[in-house]
Specification:
Blueprint lengths: L1 E10 L14 E6 L3 E3 L6 E4 L13 E4 L5 H12 L3 E6 L2 H11 L5 E5 L5 H15 L4 E4 L14 H29 L3 E6 L12 H21 L4 E8 L4 E2 L2 E2 L1 H14 L3 H10 L9 H12 L9 E4 L10
Parallel strand pairs: 1-4, 5-6, 5-8, 6-7, 8-9, 9-10, 10-13
Antiparallel strand pairs: 1-2, 2-3, 11-12
Bound molecules: nicotinamide-adenine-dinucleotide (NAD).
Amino acid sequence: MKELLLRRARLASPSGNEDDPWRRVILRATTGKADLEIAGVGAYEIFRPTPTPAAPLAGKIAIVTGAAGAIGAGICRGLLETGCHVAATDVSPDNLCSLVEDLRGVGPTIGVPLDVTDPQSVADGFAQVIKTWGGVDIVVVNAGIAIGASLMETSLEAFRKLEKVNVDGALLTLTEAGRILREQNTGGDIIVISTKNFFAPGAGFGAYCATKSACHQLARIASLEFAPFGVRVNMVAPDAVFSDGSRRSGLWAEVGPARMKSRGLDEKGLEEYYRNRNLLKTRVTAKHVANAVLFFATRQTPTTGATIPVDGGLPDSTPR
Ligand SMILES: NC(=O)c1ccc[n+]([C@@H]2O[C@H](COP(=O)([O-])OP(=O)(O)OC[C@H]3O[C@@H](n4cnc5c(N)ncnc54)[C@H](O)[C@@H]3O)[C@@H](O)[C@H]2O)c1
């Protein structure tokens, strides 16, 4: 009997049981080395990475968009530490290279250039991951941008720029993920990084709040439409994450100065302000956001269409 270390397999006739989708005839398998064509499983003993308490996502393949930013980097690290293979994707090639370098040694990572606003780029990015590792299990919709401006100061051009990334980008990533996961028939998890602003919008932040709310609503619709093929879609709603280690949030680099000016605070003062405004008086970190992503990705509860607030407790912005 041949031994085969199988990373992924495409099934001729999936069993329908998401815990055991490997029972039926395997048509195409991707191993560590190359794609193989296999007539049936009988001649092979198949080894799969086995999840353990320390690595509950062993062997799973995750794609993270906007990975080279503060929150994306934290999410990639969290997924790697639980055993995932991680495809870190971003529109910024330089930041992506530095992220892949930072994650060297944490776990199997590839950097994939992917612009969420461009359908071809999204399709090519997913295709590259599938070619490399044979499939996808977890997709984190994280790319997002912001501006700080009152409605009357917001130009249509600026609004459309945010729409393109936060709404079109979310739609394109969700639909590509949905199509691929449906075709694989393996189930899967999509986690959308929303914001506390969905529940509690802020003055001077209209374009961001409106476009992220559209993204959140798309995710809720996806949870309705993807459930029939075993795909869960959940949201994480953080507040005020300024960095992940030395990686500063680009979003805060954009909106921070106006926020500091309006509150008469310096950078440190601004971070303190956000820490002190929540019930738990806690500084929210990218690792906290990653932990919420992992809660969903490890399927600890039968939940879809739900949001975990990661905000230290903000009574007006939590779906309690
Ligand atoms: N930082 C916060 O306080 C906070 C709070 C709530 C929600 N969020 C959400 O978390 C996500 C990440 O925020 P962050 O603070 O890490 O921001 P960030 O700016 O540090 O990271 C965002 C990343 O998205 C990438 N990106 C931008 N346009 C893209 C495109 N067209 N295609 C692909 N990638 C693109 C950027 O290059 C960047 O690496 C965003 O969706 C944001 O709305 C952030």
